[in-house]
Design a protein that fits this description.
Strand content: under 5%
Helix content: 40-55%
Number of strands: 0
Largest sheet: none
Low-confidence stretches: none
Structural class: mainly alpha
Shape: elongated
Number of helices: 3
Length: 107
Amino acid sequence: MTWQRWLVAFMIVLFATTQYVLALYAMRDLARRPSVRGGSKVTWALLILSLPVAGPLIYTSVGPTSFIGRPWPPFRPYPGRSLRRDDGDERDPDPEPEQTPGARDAD
């Protein structure tokens, strides 16, 4: 094969990859949104699938009207522990240092 044919083959593969990636992104976004501009998700899906590259680009610039709600992760400062002191932890917060046997106080 000549370098021109390799270039044409590379451009075709690049175009196809771009088309599929954009279409998958737009279809995934369309499925997750509660509403879109125009009100019909079926019309947007047909536009995305029928116009290569241009369909997903038109959808992402014009179609979405609402934000996708994402739940906040629960706040856990330490795995398995709460911030409250009365969670059943019986340890003394300020333990006194233990004296070794035979040590004398210098009173």
